[in-house]
Write a structure and sequence with these properties.
8 helices; 5-stranded antiparallel beta sheet; alpha+beta; D-amino Acid Aminotransferase, Chain A, domain 1; Rossmann fold; globular; single chain; 33% strand
Amino acid sequence: MILIFSESNDISTRDIKERLRDMSQDVLEISMGTPDMCFEYIGNDKIIFRDKKSEQIYDLLEASACWWRRTGLTKQTLLPNYPSKIDAEDGNLDFLIQGDRNILNYEFSSLKEYINNIIYERCPIHIGNPNHMGLNRLFTLEIAKKFGINIPSYAVITNLNQIEKFNNISDTFVVKAIEDGVYHFHNNKAYYSYTEAYTKDEMHGKNVPLFPSLIMEKIEKKYEIRSFYLDGRFYSMAIFSQNNKQTEIDFRKYCVERPNKVEPFKLPCDIEEKLERLFRYFDLNCGSADIVVDKKGNYVFLEINPVGQFQMTSIPCNYNLEQVIANYLVYGTQENNT
């Protein structure tokens, strides 16, 4: 059995499951937003989940491979009998399961951590790391610099008047989220945050308090690279986003009328070696790295997304990463061993 932790309606998960079933593999998906799977018990060296529709029982420790694609385990799947109140002889104790100090949240977190880590420890083949589903962007930049990888100059400010303090920040700079930014759907509307560019002149003389905000030097880029990494191999794609004003700062502002040119790309060996050290440092065997190549040919690292999209690289570059991932989950190697 191959186990996948994901979220409902994830297209990549669906496509990999199809490949695995074509390879005659049994696949169990536990996903956020899918209420059918529920936790039953831990004991007798088993972790038992039940499909509420079919009543079929699954022992997660029998999985031969596991892919931490997305969130997977949620309160909905782990806590089917979540209490709404606590009655005791001394009166109403509902406050114990409400607010920031909700004791059940601590119980949930500990249970989820145990399940993820014991599977990670025992499963012979795995993709991803449940303890590193997201990386701290600033800390990752500093570790990359430690390994000799170029990174952009950056600062975190709390007032617009602080920008002029940083001579290492270019006159035109970019602003981006310290974490992941906004990616949210609400009332049939989609909300996103993008990397945006500003100039120091625009901010000159402004005394405006801010929530701690990340600013970075703007790299004058020749092109940028999205590179998908899986256990020692990089599958890279060059994106010529600088040729379009709409995508020049953030290629995610897709231009339907004039799509960015993309093409397969091979990173220099020394860059791949340094990036692999970075992945190994965080105990990651999978993820997507974003890099900018400046007009002088320097490679400047931006970030690693441990659960980054790979199909945007796979499809235009004909890498067939869907099959590569399926092969890895079945055989522990990226080639088909049949």
